[in-house]
Amino acid sequence: MIYTVTFNPSVDYVMHPTTLDMGYTNRSTAEEFYAGGNGINVSTILTELDVDNVAMGLIGGFTGEFVLDTLQAQGINTNFVRLDKGNTRINVKLNGIIMTIINGMGPNIPIAKVDELFRRIDRIQAGSTLVLTGSIPSCLPDDMYDIMMSRFGDRGIRFVVDAPGDLLMNALAAKPFFIKPNNHEVGRIFGANPETPEEVLPYARLLHEKGAQNVLVSCGGYGAALVDEYGQEHTTKCPPCRLVNATGAGDSMVAGFLAALDRGWDYGDALNYASACGSATAASNGLANRETIERFYNSLVHLLEDEASKAGQDPVEPVAHDAGDVENASDSED
Ligand SMILES: O=P(O)(O)OC[C@@]1(O)O[C@H](CO)[C@@H](O)[C@@H]1O
């Protein structure tokens, strides 16, 4: 069973303004509301792909009720600790010609509620996977993932960590099963500017040597790279797509990688599937559905097959062949 933890969930309020003139009233041409937060996004895609999972975390107020109702309507298993005071935050995403994000701070979280969450995590069985992803609210210690991996580390649980900067680096000593920074985060950690999968591989290897078993680095429209638990290096491309929405693309990659491993796929195929999931979300309004993911995966496999046959290498075996038309490679992620 996979458990995701979201300390600071959100209502993602997506607006589509055609202008953004500072100091003036701007108008949106459409709005959407989604249940958001990194762990919640991972759970949403896992559920879409029929992988058993439970979304855990802390939730509060009327916005928290919206998040819970939305998840339950989507058939996602939830186990959230309710806060007595405060509202789950609203994160504003301005999509369209202007991609701008304003994320809320979130409610104050009393330590007693964190203890309650930990008591629930205590009941997770050995062999489970715990996905720790997203920022930690400023009212909580910023080495929270480190604290959790120390506390739950001897339970036979696999940890997945997708977090920025120190939060990620602090977690490496506990040897997480899988981490997924993007090329910009890796660049900030090492004071470099890697863009392509080939350029990030040396830094992925450094993170692997520091303790992470599988290091997947997403590189936006260039694709992604993986150093797997055996030290093998893999790279993949991004299926061609037109960017509609960057929110949740990275979380979709985390979910795609875990879903592929859950199906027993090898690491190279799991990397391809992760890339397809990220691109499928980047090309969708909200998170991708299963049909879009499978279409993007088949499109990617065809692309890799073409490249392999031009280079005289062994072709990549696709799962199915129903690729539709997709246009213009472009991607970035939240
Ligand atoms: O403020 P954080 O926790 O860094 O990021 C939260 C967030 O931007 O990340 C998700 C996309 O990955 C969104 O659903 C959500 O609004």
TrEMBL record:
A Pfam family matched in the record: PfkB
Origin superkingdom: Bacteria
UniProt KW Cytoplasm keyword: no
Chain spans, region Disordered: 308-334
Listed SUPFAM superfamilies: Ribokinase-like
Keyword field: ATP-binding, Kinase, Nucleotide-binding, Transferase
All copies of domain Carbohydrate kinase PfkB, residue ranges: 8-289
InterPro entries according to UniProt: PfkB_dom, Ribokinase-like, Tagatose/fructose_Pkinase
Gene3D superfamilies noted in UniProt: 3.40.1190.20
Family to which this protein belongs: Belongs to the carbohydrate kinase PfkB family.
Record's protein name: 1-phosphofructokinase family hexose kinase
